[in-house]
Amino acid sequence: MTNRTGSADAQHEIGIPLQQAGAFGEIHAVPLVVDLDGTLTPTDTLAESVIQLVRRNPFNVLRALRWLLKGRAGFKDAVTSHSSISAEHLPYCEPLLAYLRTERQKGRRIILATAAHRRIADRVSTHLGVFDEVIATEDRCNLKGDVKLEAIVKTVGRKFVYAGDSIADIPIWKAAHAAVLVGVSAGLSRRVRRDTPVEQEFPRERAGFTVWVRAFRVHQWVKNVLLFVPLLTAFSFMNVDTLATMTVAFLAFSLAASATYMVNDLWDLENDRAHQRKRHRPFASAQIPILLGLCVAAVALTIGLALALAVSQGFLFLLLTYLILTSAYSWVLKEYVLIDVILLSLLYTLRILAGSVAAGIATSSWLLAFSVFVFLSLALVKRCSELVSLDQVGEDAARGRDYRVTDMVVLWPLGVGAAMSAVVVFGLFIAAPETQARYAAPQLLGFVAVGLIYWLARLWVKTSRGEMHDDPVVYAVKDRGSRITVLVMIATVLAAHFVAMGPIR
Fold this sequence. Notes:
The chain is an alpha/beta fold. The protein folds into 3 domains: 2-202, HAD superfamily/HAD-like (Rossmann fold), CATH 3.40.50.1000; 208-363, UbiA prenyltransferase (Tetracycline Repressor, domain 2, Orthogonal Bundle), CATH 1.10.357.140; 365-505. Helix content is 59%, strand content 7%. It contains 22 helices and 7 strands. The protein has a 7-stranded mixed sheet with strand order 1-4-3-2-5-6-7, sandwiched between helices. Helix 12 (240-267) runs antiparallel to helix 14 (290-311) and helix 17 packs antiparallel against helix 18 (408-431). The longest helix has 28 residues, at 240-267.
């Protein structure tokens, strides 16, 4: 179970008490044994390996269930043999890592002792370059609890300092010369201190409200305002009962969508960690534990579906359709060029259709056609903004997607063309007999068409300058010029409907 890279100093006797050693600055003479999962890295490498396994082939779930019969060590061996966690992109406890490097420079012997499989432990050790030896799970021996303590004593003797993070580490701390505490609760810290001197303690910030808001991607809920579009186009927004129903529908869609966001973030951990901005997401940075995230996602999805059923069976059906399509997009289809942006445009349009069903208002073919073109353009803005960012840092292709920087010569005119197609559809809508009959001043809608040209062209200009957020909808909400333009267009539509005008001479 040991991989010995230290030779002479791996055999010397340690006999300096902690208090004396600390007083003379020689605590580094006592070997420092460090746990991996939850300590050196805040994530769970086994859970990540299982996610990666299932991502490669969903049918691997059945294989994983069969591997459980081999016991924990056998399960870890089978899982890690079919997956490859990247040590380079794992999040680490940087204060602890800095401490380990400082101690090693002083000549201290540093050992990685983990219940994770040796394949993972060796990758981490090779990448970090701070460990003299590695003790890890292998063969049929799962290195946890008393088994880990026995392996540590066999490797370094009975004088060692142990760095851990959980209640499962208490037996090892009790046997240790001193403890290093990483991200433990106040209660566990007091419990350890009753039996063992503490050499160092590295607190870890718990996931607070703002972290969970980011995990739920509450800022993305603005997309679900599209559910209210049928109310706007039918001018039925003064009906209190309908507004109450639409509010429930909005919450249902938002909670269900947030559940998929969390699952998709876990599904895409490796790619997110390689991304300059996405690596700071709550799951990619391991601010939220994987299993806790899955449980919260399940609760959010359950509540969302229950609220959808309370609205209507038809709305529930469309929400389920949305969930299936968005999951297919995240798991498979986003890796195919153009198919992903077409599906994104359909997902946006599906929100409008779902709002129509929830409100009991028929949706015109004009609105659906307009929506498809507008959202296709916005989806292409999203892809082009990513490619612009890649080009700025000298990269040629997007990770996890079939897009290259050179594709912008095709994507750019396609996106602008889709935007102008939406304007053309809107122009035809203005000239339609039903529009002329429905609006008191349909000629005012021409100003909306001008506003659309300005707004959509503005998004593309911002994209070309590298100023576009990864999500153009989020950018439009935050951008002052976009907000003013959209509000003016909405006000103009309302005026066109309610304000009668004489003929223009």
